[in-house]
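step: validate -> pass
step: tokenize input -> pass
step: predict -> running
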Amino acid sequence: MLFFKRRQRLAILLFSICLCGVLLLNSSWAVTQPAPTQNADVSAIKPLSVTNNVRKTILENGLTVLTKEVPTAPVVSVQVWYQIGSRDEAPGVNGIAHQLEHMLFKGTTERPIQFGRLFSALGSDSNAFTSYDQTAYFGTVERSKLQTLLTLEADRMQNALIDPQELENEKRVVISELQGYENEPGYRLSRAVMQAVFPNSPYGLPVGGTKADVQKFTVEQVREYYRNYYSPDNATLIVVGDFDTNTALAAIKETFGKVASRKVATLSRTQQLRAILSQNRQHNQPQTPESPIVLQEPGAAALLQAVYPLPNINHPDVPALDVMDYIISEGRNSRLYQALIETGLASDARGSVASMKSSGWYRLAATAVPGQALQKIDSVMQQAIAQLQTQGVTQEEVNRAKALVRATIVLSNRDITSQAMQLGFDQSTAGNYRYSDRYLAAIEQVTAADVQRVAKTYLQPQKRTVGFFEPTALQEGSASAEEAIQTHESLAAGPPVDPAEVAKYLPPIESATPTVRQLPEQFKLTNGLEVLLLADKSTPTVTLSGYIKAGSEYDANTTAGLATLTADNLMNGTKTKNAQTLAAALENQGASLEFAAFREGVDVTGYSLATDLPVLVQTLADVMQNANFPADELELARQRALTNLKLELDSPAQVARRQFQQTIYPPNHPYHSFPTAESLQQISREDVMRFYQQHYRPDQVILTFVGDFEPQQVRSLLEQQLKGWRFQGEVPTVNYPQVSPPKSVVQQNPVLPGKTQAVTFMGYKGIERRDPRYYSALVLNQILGGDTLSSRLGTEIRDRQGLTYGIYSYFQAGRNAGPFLIQMQTSPEDATRAIASTIQLLQQVHTQGVNQDELDTAKRSLTSGYTVALANPDDIANQILINAVNELSAEELRAFSQKLHSVTLSQVNQAAKELLQPNNIVVVTAGPGRSTATR
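step: predict -> pass
step: emit ->
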């Protein structure tokens, strides 16, 4: 559960750090309003604040408490951030903070039970992460459960059980997690480069640790870190959401106020760790531009990473460095995109500034197009930086970068969890929860001269460390599959978790007041395009979630990839605008619009500030009606698709999923088709144009808008922009033939050299969304594998046997019957045992069913989780859209929870007999092979 900063502290791996504040702009606009000019007067924009309504309290035991009332949704987020991360480690104990994070879910003296089961029973969106400077635990629940979540977090702050046997099991889980990262060449290259950049600093250590160190952790070492760092005076508690501050503070003092402070590791401890680093690495020499780090290992694509050291988060140059990064790497008009991607040298190029407590760095990365040398890409990248250093940047570039920063901040300020995340990050890393206010004010003051100055200061060639990943040839026949009937071991699955035991340890829950959910306004334009609008004035933003019935289900095997190539090229130009002009119209306002094909359709995703919705709609209307697919851009997109295909075929998860579906579904079935190098090469521009003309038609489009607008204004805008769009001919159809289940257990084992973890997919054809058993299947799946930390599969395969970092199951139920599948990640030597145990557990549920307590717990978890999810604008926009795509009424948004409540025990157990078929299952395990030694 690693936590990395991605973009000037705003985006994170797995999560988005979000800033809270109100953009003080007029949120109304006229339909005829022209698009804003490219060089808008940034001085006219009033300052943002992320700390409005934040109250800071310090308890007598030293605990810092940050509270913020946000009554926009009936949920509350509780987060505890500890000042402990990988920067508090050294070789020999690298990864111990991460290991300790895992152990904090294993129960307490008061509650000797997996905490994930308690969180699941609450319907909490809970997790944790370890980063360089901190470890954090977070959960978002319905507002009535605030006291319950506070009690649980206070309990594990002081009473965690760190049992020797549990530690041994969890060490296996952590190693599985680390080996999963090791499967990725980019991770291995990053680790080597960072060790060279920071040879005498903990920032050069991998956050999650190493297998060698994890294997050696002792119970006493882990307990020592817990005693030293898990103390109130080394933590920040953040509570954000729908609550009364005075009442919440009283509850916090009652729970956390009783936790005694322990002696926290002093500065001398940190100095001691760094002395160990210096001693262990005294022979390391910083890399020079003439001696790049080169990894020659099995892989699919050549990779480059270059890292420059930067100052810490509180240095005054950080805002200018972030603006510089946006100019260099963000968007289609960035310097790197133009220099590397538009020229066909790279399929991907990106940058990111990381600003930490004691240091920082700037990372540039690129993926080479096949046949292009990394040395050439590196040279072009350096030339682009040198040009910026010598010639400077334009005011238009600075304005665009600032607009992107501002919009990113506001757009990521839409959900409760992310607002709390930003407060936690600022307090724990910058040492001041008001840091982002100062940062935002400083962004507005950045000039073109500032950008040039920081580029000259920090991006000097002699300061950088560069790494190349050069893939070696795959072993001949390595992608072939070993087919065999699954072997069955004599393994007994443990007893199911008793929900009564979970209830025994769950703190009291206040009674909840039902919330009446607002329904979207729904209408069709005269051309058949369907629209759903949900006004939400809580933030000055708009979220677009759309669907086009133009997915890969229409692909022929000979031209597989056509739907994706078409969607990927929509933004490459129209009859009146080229790709750069289209991108600039959005980027200048900080807006975005993306299209992505999947099996049953094309996802449309768009974001803008409320004032810029006309720009978003105008761009959408233009590309939907007038895309012209320039030949040169199409060829570049094809090269990127071929590179991405090579990367997919080097990914155990992607290879396993591909072979899994092609084993279940026959060659004439839409779920069987996947792109190949041959099929991508076969696609012509005429094929793309024909596909676009046949499938991109208004009667096959659904658009959902959620945000700060007047519905009638949006309707008028859409009618104005799309009134000329008409369709011709019959609606395209696709044939879904019958699928026969396998007659026995079928196992396949594609081998990928150079990997350390195996990924397994297990399953068969599932059900459609409109199947009457759907709600029973959801409840059944929640019990079986819907949550790794609380389900039967997670309890048995992860917790009891320690065989996997993660295992989960789900029904992919759409307009057509997608697969039911179970996915897990294991060490190669553990795969057979994990598969056998999983099949045995499926057999147990199939024959014996589940009990009433499990049913009730699962239903409460699902309905509570539904309320929490729909507090996020992205989730509610997507849910409204999915309901419409599946031809469900708008009332489904309200009715869903009641339908789950109505599911009976007999219905779930009947679904278990009909939908779980352990003796007729496809099992695909992709990885290094059982005989391959792990890294």
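step: describe -> The first strand starts at residue 5 and ends at 7.
step: cleanup -> pass
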